[in-house]
Amino acid sequence: MSLKHMGPGLLGLIALWQAVVWLVGVPRYILPAPLQVAAALVRQPQFLLRNGLITLSEILVGLACGTLLGFAAALSMAAFPRLGRLAWPMLLVLQALPVFVLAPILVLWFGFGMASKAVMATIIIFFPVASAFADGLRRTDPVLLDAAALTEASHWQVLRHIRLPLALPALVSGLRVAAPLAPIGAVVGEWVGASAGLGFVMVQANARMQTDTVFAAMALLAVMTLLLRAAVDRLTAPLAPWAPESDHRPINLISRRIKL
Known about the structure:
By secondary structure, the protein is mainly alpha-helical. It has helices at residues 3-24, 34-43, 45-79, 81-96, 99-110, 114-138, 142-150, 155-192, 198-207, 211-236, 249-259.
């Protein structure tokens, strides 16, 4: 779904939010109205933008590292099946650990700077990418594999020329799932220990009961997440041009045959 399709839904949600605040009379420190959140954004744009750029840099580093590691791990497990049987259970155990458990340890290991937040985002992004890509590599059409066997193609040739290209749509799906998750790792790391970033802003504002600032930081984070997802959609589209998201040609062909 593109951003232009999300627009009406987002505007409707904001209007409903504003109406509920007006009708119910919720105190500002519990639930600020959208207009109050917008005022908080206008009141301190440089402060929020500076911290937003810090969080965005952590997200981008984590997204890049998580994508590369997930791609490499899935490809390695496909290239070396014995390695995959040994490594996959360990990856599952790593994914099963809650991020709130890992965050304090990562801050202890990597400090309060960008490194601990980027590592947290990398861990969160790694598994969706590796899982989706590995599944795509496993689900190669057996007919194609049998045809390749008739040509006496090697294991590496099959992997490079058949399994890898056909698994790229699965990789794209993994990236689309991972992109909205990337901010979670950065923000959770900032909650645990940081001196800057949107998560740091939320913690400090919440302690002062400045709920409008908390929601302003959340709104900025939501915009960043939507833009990141749109950028991933745009950048990953050329990876699998033969596998569009929607293709109505088979339906049209069936309808023509029914008419005949």
